[in-house]
Amino acid sequence: MPRALVLMGTILLAVAAVASAQAQSYLFTGVRALDCYDGDTCTFDILEDHPILGRLTFRAVSVRIQGLDAPERRGRCDAEKRLAAEARRFLLDLIAKAGRVDLRVAGRDKYGRLLATVIVDGADAAPRLIDAGLARAYTGRGPRGSWCEADAAAQVTEPSS
Question: Which pTM does this prediction carry?
Fold first, then answer.
């Protein structure tokens, strides 16, 4: 059994590497979300019927959602931590209510997670989080900005007791 898991993991890595190298992506359909860490990282089970390789199963695959930056659970301030919890709840609810969830994998991020567009009932989930004010558009390059600036400004304007 462990040998089969290693083989399947190697195949997944190869698919992601080829997709990334060719500036293309690979679509995994009907994936199952296990949990979300925050608003931009979730864990999925991927069950795929590949036309050549047959039934592929990848358990507890960590996925970084492409196209956004969400607050971190271990953020630098209370406001960021609160927003991270809200973004996580929003994303979990969105996925739980979905009839279908797909992943369009573009490659891997610097931490080894799959970098993917999460497609919920045919629509990209990232704009939903951004529109709700729980994430920002992010291409993966350049500064991301602080989630704590609004918290600091609010503390400055609040009267002291």
Answer: 0.76
